[in-house]
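Quick log. Single chain, no ligands specified.
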Amino acid sequence: MGKTKSLWKLIGELKNQKKLEVAVFYEEVPIKGVIEISEVDDSLEQIIWKADRRITPVLKETRHIYFKFNEEIYILTVIAYNSREIATSFPVFALDKKLNRAYVRVKTSESHPVRVEIEGIDFFAEDISEAGIGIIADEKKSK
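-> predicted structure:
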């Protein structure tokens, strides 16, 4: 009962707020946008949002929209969308701890490698973040 009550409280607060800052992840890169509630369908337990053109192309790759509200991270699962509207499930808590990380990590690609030189030895970066890089080194090469 408490969970249902808190869910309806959250939905009520989102209705009052109208616009919601959200993020979707494309290959671990956050794409930020703003969506606005158009309608809440209680019987189908879904919310219809006015779409943000910045995030709709990414919805082809992912079906999750993330948002932070009162220091908690929530997920909206996309049911259907077009250029004007996005239909989502009701919000649920995001339990994945990686969503609370301080930095975004970006994987490098083989077609556009990132070369790193440390004390005259070349390495290829496996991933990059604001906090640093990840490298894979051949044991013989690193000695």
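The mean pLDDT is 81.
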